[in-house]
Amino acid sequence: MKVSVIIPTYYREHDLSELLDSLLQQSIKPLEVIVVDDTPTFIIKSACEKYEKKFANLGISLIYIKNPKQRSAAIARNVGAKKADGDILMFFDSDIILYPDYIEKIVDVFQKYSNALGVQGWIANATKPDINPLIKCLEIIFGIHQYLVKDQCKFKQYPIILTRVINCEWLSGSNMSLKREVLENFQFDENLKKYSYMEDKLFSFSIYRSYPNSLYMTPYAKCIHKGSEVGRMESRELKKHKNFCRKYVLTKLYGLKGLFIYYRQNLGHLIIGLIGKLLSFARKK
Fold it and tell me: How large is the angle between the packed helices 199-210 and 73-83, nearest 10 degrees?
C-alpha cells in the first residue's frame, strides 16, 4: 500500500519541522508528503525547502502547495487529497509527532481488516483533565462532557486507555488515515473555515453512518499531539468561531435535534461559567 501524507498548516514552521523529522524516521516510508499552507507569508515554504533534499534522498516527494482558496483546515485537507497519489491518505495536524513505526502499524490494520476504510492511531499523551466533580456532573447533564474511557470510541468518547484494535464512530483530524476511494465519495465540509472546529467529526461520523464498523483505532500506532498555541485565534474570537462550527456540525448531523443539543449545551456552558465564577470568588474569600 502506497501512503500519501497530507499536512495542513498555518504559521507553524517549528511544529511542522518536528513532524517532518518524525516522518523521515518511519520504518515504512510514505510515497509523498504534501504540505498545504494557509499561511500568508513564506515561512512554511522556506521550512519545506530545507527538507526537500532529505526526503528526496529517501525516495519521498515533498510537495508544497499554497492553499488557493479561503483559509480553512477543511479546504486544505481536500486540496491535499486531490493532489495525492497514494492508496492510503494520512492526514496529520502539523503539531503531531509520530512514533517511528506509526505508518507501519496503520498499514497493518488496513491489511488485517479488509473492511477498514479509515484507521487512526492513538494519542499517547492524552490525559484526564482535573475537573471539579460538580462541573463534571453538569457537563454530563448538558451533553458537554467528552468521556475518556477504556477501549471504546463512540461519538463523545476517546479511549485514554487502549489495549487492542477497536472500532470507532469517528476519527480525530489530528491523525486519521483513509483509503483513497473514501475521498471519492466524502469530502471535508468547506463551509468550516479557518480552524475548522469539529470538521473531523462531521467528516468521519458521516462515513461511519454509511459504513458501520469500517473505522478503526490501533494502540500500536502512537503519536504525540502537542496542542500548539501557534496560529490560534484570540480566546474571544475562538469561542465565537467554535460556537458557529458546533452549531453547524450538530445541525448537519442531527437536523432539529442537533439544534436542541446545541442550545442545551449553551445553557450548560452558561451555568457552568456562573458556577465557576462563584467557586473562584469563594476561594478568594
Answer: 60
- 285 — pLDDT class (breaks 50, 70, 90): low
Helix intervals (H) in the chain = 13-24, 43-57, 73-83, 102-112, 133-141, 182-185, 199-210, 235-254, 256-284
Let me know: does 9 contact 39? Beta carbons within 8 Å: yes
Strands 215-225 and 96-98: antiparallel
The Cα 242–Cα 240 span in angstroms is 6
Average pLDDT over residues 61-65: 98
Beta carbons within 10 angstroms of residue 52's beta carbon: 14
Q: Grid cell 517549528 — which residue?
A: 14
Q: Please state, as a whole number, how many other Cβ atoms lie within 10 Å of the Cβ of residue 238.
A: 14
Q: Exposed (0-12), middle (13-18) or buried (19+): which is 33, by Cβ within 10 Å?
A: buried
Residue 135 has pLDDT above 80, yes or no: yes
* pLDDT of residue 209 exceeding 70: yes
- Average pLDDT of span 233-242: 90
Give the residue-averaged pLDDT of 106-127. 96
pLDDT band for position 145 (50/70/90)?
confident
- Spatial distance between the Cα atoms of 58 and 56, rounded to a whole number of angstroms: 5
d(CA 64, CA 74): 17
Which of 211, 205, 200 shows the shortest CA–CA distance to 154?
205
pTM of the model: 0.94
Q: Which residue has the cell 504540505?
A: 35
d(CA 158, CA 177): 17
Alpha carbons 161 and 150: distance in angstroms, whole number: 5
CB distance 279 to 285 below 8 Å: no
Cα 202 to Cα 46, 77, 187, 192, 284: the distances in Å are 33, 14, 10, 10, 42
